What we know:
The protein has eleven helices and no strands. The chain is mainly alpha-helical. The chain is globular and about 50 Å long. The model is unreliable at about 1-20 (pLDDT under 50).
Amino acid sequence: MTNGGRYDIQSVSDQKRPQTQYKTTVNGWIVLFVFLTAILASFVQTTSGFAFALITMALWPAVLTIPDSTHLLMFSSFLVISIMTFRFRHRINFHLVIVPSMVAIAGNAAGVHLIGSAPEALLIRILGAVLIVLAVSLMIAGNRFRVKPTVRNASIAGLVSGMMNGMFNIPGPPIVLYYSAATRTKEEYIATTQFFFWIALVQRMILVLLSSPLSTDVLITFPFAITGSVIGMVLGFRVFRGLRQARVQQAVYALMIISGAFYLTS
C-alpha cells in the first residue's frame, strides 16, 4: 500500500507473477553430440527412407530427457522430410498413402493407451523382437516378397505404424516394410514413405505445440540438430543417386536388425 492509502498495483502484480527460471543442462559436448548424431540419422534417413527416429531416440535420451528428445526429433526431422517429400513429389503414390494415414490416427491413440498400461521395459523388448523377426523374414523371402496395395494390407500397415508411433514415437518400420515391397522403384518408395512421415509429423507437431511449451534444452540444441540434419541429407542425396532398389531394401532390413538388437539389450 502506498503513502496515499492506495495499493501499489505494480508491486502487487510483481509479487503474484510467477518467476520463470530458464535452466539448462546443455553444454558444448551435448551440442556436439546432437549435431553429429543428427548428421548420421539424416544421412541414413535419406538413403534408406527411414531410421531418423530409430537412431536419434536410441542416442539422444543419453544426454537429454525423453520428452526433450522426442520434441527435438520431431522438429529437426521435419525440414529433412519436407525437403525429401518435395524433391520426390512427382513420384509419390498417393493411393498408397491415403488409407494408412487415416488408420494410423486410430493406431496412435491405441498405442498411447497401451504404453500407459504396460511396463516400458517390456514394450521396448517387444519392439526389438518384432523388428528382428520382420527383418529376417523379409531377407529370407527376398524378391519373392510382395505386398499388394489392398485396403486390408494398407490398414494393417497404418494401424501397426500408428501404434508404434503412440508407444515408441517410432512409426517407421511397419510402413517401411509395406512401402518397400509395394512400390516399384526406389524413388517411389522414398517419396511415398516420406509423404506418410510428413503427414504424421504435422499431426504430432500440432498436438505438441498446443499442449506444452518447448523446453530451454530443445531451443538451445535445435539449431545444431537442424544444421546436422541438413548436412546429413546433402551427403545422403549424393549416395542415393548410385543406389539400387535392392540395396536400399537391404539397408532397411539391416537397420531393423541392428535397432531391434539394441532394444532387446537395452
